[in-house]
Amino acid sequence: MALSFNDENSLFNFVVKDGNGVKGLVDSGLTQVPGQYIQPPIHRINKQNTTVSLENMIIDLSELDGPNHDQVVKSIAHAAETPGFFQVVNHGVPIELLESLKVSAHEFFNQPSEKKAVYLKGVSPSPMVKYGTSFVPEKEKALEWKDYISMIYTNDADALEFWPNECKEVALEYIKTSTGMSKTRTPSPSLSDENLSDSVASVGREGNLGQSGRVVDDVQDDQLEQILYPGTSQQPAEPSSATPLDENVNSEGNAIP
């Protein structure tokens, strides 16, 4: 039986303060996206004003070391400034490591809420590790449909002592590999933060929206953030078996009215 919440405070306490997160809502048998997660129309994408891009945004980073260096730099800048995202290949991060990272993330998020809650802000054993949901739930008018675990790297000893057991070893390997890749494959001084605007190129952003949801791994400046966009409680085998919640969560894990 799905949990019921008498008011906004009871839902906020369950999701945020008690550490159940959005996954806790989904696991409770939720059949309808709560109003607190529905963005007002003014903040939604106006599909009538969007265009479909047919450009191939796959960039081979290995070509930065060859005669096509300048063209790759231009392609990165164009992809960052225009569609705002792109896929990189031959980046030097083993696929096996990326798969292990996703598995470890699911192992963390699939734990009981009380085990994840030990990393909530204010009670976490280290300020370098934080588990939470949404972005700034205390101030947001509409909550984000996501849970996350954020780990800041200072040194190996702290990482192995304070990071969650479920993901610390593979996360440590990933952050070293990916930051090493970014340092050895820095395209060009001309590709500055200004050129890239607010766009970010990430490695390993992949996962399926289903029983466990979509996992995104993002590493920037020695900080790894693993994000879960919870899907439905069960992966529908047939369209007719979809739960009511399926109709309110799109393929990217975002709540829609």
UniProtKB/TrEMBL annotation:
Keywords: Iron, Metal-binding, Oxidoreductase. Residues 231-257 have a biased composition (Polar residues). Residues 179-198, 203-257 are annotated as: Disordered. GO terms for molecular function: metal ion binding; oxidoreductase activity. It holds the Pfam family DIOX_N. Residues 58-165 form the Non-haem dioxygenase N-terminal domain. The keyword RNA-binding does not apply. InterPro entries: DIOX_N (IPR026992), IPNS-like_sf (IPR027443). The keyword Lipid metabolism does not apply. This is 2-oxoglutarate (2OG) and Fe(II)-dependent oxygenase superfamily protein.
